[in-house]
Description:
By secondary structure, this protein is of the alpha+beta class. Helices cover about 35% and strands about 20% of the residues.
Amino acid sequence: MLEVKTPTRPPAAPDEGDKAIHERYISARENRFMPIRQLPENLINRIAAGEVVERPASVVKELVENAVDAGASRVAITTAGGGKSLIRIEDDGIGMDADDLLLSVERHATSKLSDDGLDDIRTLGFRGEALASIGAVSELAIASRPADAPSGLRLEVSRSSKRPLVPQAMNQGTIVEMRDLFAAVPARLKFLKSDRAEAAAITDAVRRLAMANPEVHFLLEGSDRSPLNWPAQHGEGALAARLGQAMSGDFAENAVPLAMARHGVVVAGLAGLPTYSKANSLSQFYFVNGRPVRDKVLLGAARAAYADYLFRDRFPAIALFLAVDPAEVDVNVHPAKAELRFRDAGAVRSAVIRAIAEALGAAGYKASTTVADAVMGAFRAPETAAAAEPGYASRAGGRCDASSPGLSGFAEPSARFETAAPEPVAEDQYPLGTARAQMFENFIVAQNGDSLVLVDQHAAHERLVYERFKAQLATGPVASQLQLIPVVVELPDEDCGRLEEAAPVLERLGLYLERFGPRAMAVRETPALLGQADVGGLIRDLADGLAEWDSSAALNDRMEAIIGRMASHGSVRSGRRLRLDEMNALLREMEATAHSGQCIHGRPTYVELSKRDIERLFGRTR
């Protein structure tokens, strides 16, 4: 057998510039074997700090969690230098006496475990390492006063060294002040980001904790930031109100509530409408038993629940709160407690997907208000401010009225605008109104009581056909219609092979085809839902999809994607003229169909502009 020896030295240094590095490497290799020894306490604390104190935001997270666990109703956070120079946390919690204060900065000392078990954790902080770790890498001062004490006490810790307690006048609660983070560990300090980036990370940490605790008043301020003040929220709408404070102002009005109890998992929160999607995942927040977490199970569940409605490069906005039995979740798998492990991940995933699906289904045809805002932003009315006045003067000095020269075009017909006598119903009888006209052979113009509604007929009907497909497939195979003469579609041999292999799955969707020679497929039956569809285009589109997915074995997992391609070919196409009764029928079906506010690609199917929005376009401000 050929013996392979591990080289004891690296390759020779290629030039003099690497000589010092080369020599340090050799020295480290030669001195790696040393006797085992017990590390000193201060070094142990600094090593532990490397796990717990990753950056200033980690300090804020640990200290605010302590305040919340102490029953605080108000938490004030002050920072400077992105938290590197100063972090000060003041709360009105229960406070600590002299014994607890001295013990709080010792490693593995905690008040948050009722016994020695880790299977029933009901608090945010429980490791008992945070204060000891912070004191090892900074200048730390803690002042605290319980309700029955005449005054507070102050403890100072510098690099794990405690100074004697001294009295301090203060209200009930605790004040923790940390200065000069990592000053004694310059190697860690240089890896921190800019003050602005670290301040932003602190804001994000506070935001997540505030979202999980709406009953607590949070105040964040300092010389390195704009202040944030989120008063406590109480009552039935407390969570939605706090989410409105911590997230973008229009999130709550463009989201649907989550409420589901399934498999021992309670799901609550708000899920953004699909048309309120984002370009990244920064608007996704997940909480388990009040703890902000980053969990792959929850991320995957949300992505699966929105798969029907969003492009792959779009992300939903969601604030998801889970309540589970503490014995069913392990929060002790990450030093910073940012990750966890569910005992029954499948049950959690199922509950989350079901909760989001039902909430989005209950939203029906609803689309986000940001769609109308985007449309308003696309309009550019010249001299809008002056236009607020009747008959305002143009830059040329003329008056803007019907008799002005050069405006004769207003008396001429516009581009083709078809209409008919309206139905004998009140305009506000239907949410999407009654159809008035079709424009550009693709857009339906409707009017309800106080709004103008523009509908993309192809996108809307595509969603309707897609939902019909899913409903039929849920009860059995999709109904098919026989082609009087089989449609023969010529394709490359490899595409024919993929379609032939996928034939059993396609038959469940009402599509029956078979090989017709070496380079063609014969289509004998098509889904009845598609009507007079372009069969050739449909088959070629499916062949492209099968080539992209590269595995017919995974077709069952791709069923929704296949249905989507079929629905696209069976929907009312752009360029088709619709009668008024056809337009109104489309609007009524949209109102009765879940998710019809967005097409299967995540784009809005309609835009609603209120009368006030339209008045704003013409400068009619009141």
